[in-house]
Design a protein that fits this description.
By secondary structure, the protein is an all-alpha fold. It contains 13 helices and no strands.
């Protein structure tokens, strides 16, 4: 019940949400309820991650992994490893992120081999995407492209995950851009853009426009770059995405 109240406040009052999660954890520890202890650490990990408290989030997700191992819940362990890896990526600790992602991948693939009908396809797609991010940041581009393509191949067969598919194409495009493969980058960016236009995903569109601007900047097509940066800036302001707004504003300043 306390965790449900915490969920209720999650989008409106993070302080109250955290307060109820901590109360749930205290009560669960008194009762020795491993399931609630594990869930409480998971919730606290998400909230710490979302507000940029990465070290506490690492502790929460590490404890979550311990509790899921104690409960012999292999799916719970692998999901928690993916969450911990996401924090490590944000901290730019790519080696540790890769370790947890590869461990989770082994567990998901084992589950897939044992029970194909209940395979964790969405989780697998997330792992492939995040491994792509890790290898891209380590400048291991062929490996990054391979994992993004694995994610795309799976995502094309799963319904209602268009935003994830668009993100994968977008990330693949940025990898090709890093490699200097401009035609392949543009092809991937346009696939992502098409999905986001159809879904009216304004936040995603801001990201797509920003990346297209980067492509046209590298291709020395200044007017196109300028146009896409303004489109990205307008949508970033509309959606309240301060990260993209700041990034795009910097790029516009550089173009001037």
């Amino acid at each position: 019940t306390l965790l449900k109240i915490a969920d209720y406040y999650e989008k409106t009052d993070l302080v109250k949400s955290q307060e109820y999660t901590e109360k749930a954890l205290v009560e669960a520890e008194k009762l020795g309820n491993d399931s609630i202890i594990s869930k409480a650490h998971m919730h606290m990990g998400y909230r710490n991650f979302n507000v940029g408290l990465y070290e506490p989030a690492v502790k929460n997700f590490s404890r979550h992994i311990e509790m899921e191992k104690k409960r012999n819940n292999s799916l719970g362990v692998s999901n928690a490893m993916v969450n911990l890896a996401a924090v490590r990526i944000r901290m730019e600790d790519f080696e540790n992120a890769k370790h947890y992602l590869l461990e989770a991948l082994k567990m998901y693939e084992l589950q897939l081999s044992q029970s194909p009908d209940s395979s964790p396809l969405v989780q697998l797609i997330t792992v492939y995407n995040n491994l792509g991010i890790v290898f891209q940041n380590q400048k291991l581009y062929p490996e990054a492209v391979d994992y993004y393509n694995r994610g795309i191949s799976l995502a094309l067969g799963v319904k209602n995950i268009e935003s994830t598919l668009a993100m994968l194409y977008n990330n693949l495009g940025t990898t090709f851009l890093d490699e200097g493969k401009l035609e392949l980058a543009l092809e991937s960016f346009n696939k992502s853009l098409s999905i986001r236009i159809k879904a009216n995903d304004k936040q995603g569109l801001a990201s797509s426009y920003r990346n297209l601007a980067q492509y046209y900047t590298i291709a020395r097509q200044r007017n196109n770059a300028y146009s896409y940066l303004h489109k990205a800036l307008a949508l970033a302001k509309e959606t309240g995405d301060v990260t993209i707004e700041s990034n795009v504003s910097d790029k516009l300043f550089q173009l001037y």
